[in-house]
Amino acid sequence: xxxxxxxxxxxxxxxxxxxxxxxxxxxxxxxxxxxxxxxxxxxxxxxxxxxxxxxxxxxxxxxxxxxxxxxxxxxxxxxxxxxxxxxxxxxxxxxxxxxxxxxxxxxxxxxxxxxxxxxxxxxxxxxxxxxxxxxxxxxxxxxxxxxxxxxxxxxxxxxxxxxxxxxxxxxxxxxxxxxxxxxxxxxxxxxxxxxxxxxxxxxxxxxxxxxxxxxxxxxxxxxxxx
Amino acid sequence: xxxxxxxxxxxxxxxxxxxxxxxxxxxxxxxxxxxxxxxxxxxxxxxxxxxxxxxxxxxxxxxxxxxxxxxxxxxxxxxxxxxxxxxxxxxxxxxxxxxxxxxxxxxxx
Lengths: 226, 109
Hints:
Chain A is of the alpha+beta class.
């Protein structure tokens, strides 16, 4: 599962659109690119590769966007959005590279690490919980790229969440990221830090709380979808 | 009540094979004694759950449960890491984009 991001320039495109259209584009972006950041038809004549995102709305409203997968950072960027003309606009910017994320976008992306972790955990939480419920006492990965690694394990009526804090000699998690995992999984439900009876892994922190029912616990794929 | 030094403590860690391997690798990478690495990991646990943690947890919970776009944007700001070149309101996440769109569409008081 890849991270997702929106360039500051693309934000201007979204802000110029009606709210429902901009929201719809972001929703389709999450649905299609989180699982496969390299899906979609490639734009011809420009490098990248840049990919087309079709997000048509009812009533024949033709909505389009352009995405680019930054393999090194494992993030799919939304570069432009609007109607069909977005392709021409992106193509016109391509020779100068203005369509790509700027240095400021990259710095902002790095600063977003805790929020991106929260987004990843929420997107993966439901299938991971279902897998953990189907195989009690077996750890199921929730997120593992980029670090930190986090796992679910169902133990009776409790859900254990293990977050690896040290890996290969390096610290992998900040207090903000830990809070992001905590809030993503347990929300306002009771949760404690504990250790499994066997002592657990020396490199990890364990959170444990009531195991939610997947039916009543639908973390939204879009964190802001209320 | 006995002090820590009076109590019997377990010093022969029984690690799962994959954890033992990870510890071996960490010791090789860092050229440190394995016990020292475990001590550092334990210290990190304490540090992660320190005083500042309550504040960031509040922000994370606000982001998770609040329906107010302005509160969500404040929470995003509080949760972001300090990175040179990053701008305070410059989050490029989808979450922030949605919150900004909603905040703009809210009627002003």
